[in-house]
Design a protein that fits this description.
Radius of gyration: 15 Å
Helix content: 25-40%
Number of helices: 5
Strand content: 25-35%
Structural class: alpha+beta
Length: 157
Amino acid sequence: MADLLWDDVKWFFDPVEMGTLPDVFVPDTSVEDWQAVLDLVREQGWAFEYSEGGAVLPLPRAEVVLSRPADAEQPHLEVLPAAGVVAIFRFYAAEEIDFDVDIRELQGQERLDVLCEFLTAIGRRLGKRVLMDYEGGDGTRPVLGFDVAVDRVAQLV
């Protein structure tokens, strides 16, 4: 059975309500957690592209990316957990894993299931919550996320 039913949560996927690129994050992380996510990307065989300043490069280790000088080009990792679904990871700080998803790619039950499977894979690997908030949100009002206690993605509002 699906973690979430589309009819119950479709308003979370309205670009007007949530913004086109809602924020997804894992709070209270470390360099080791970032590395676990990078390892997961490779292990799952998800397509990905890592770039810095528009130049496509091999995916480095997390400690290398997170120790870059503040004035360096912003690293950018696009992960495709399924065809047509992209998660865009931003390496702002070791203490929080941040990425965006595009609401327009997540319409309907099938695409919702892809998102739930992706969040679940990350949450299980880290043993931590993976939360989705409004685009530009401050993280205090996530609408859904992987809940470690129930081992699935659930509504949070």
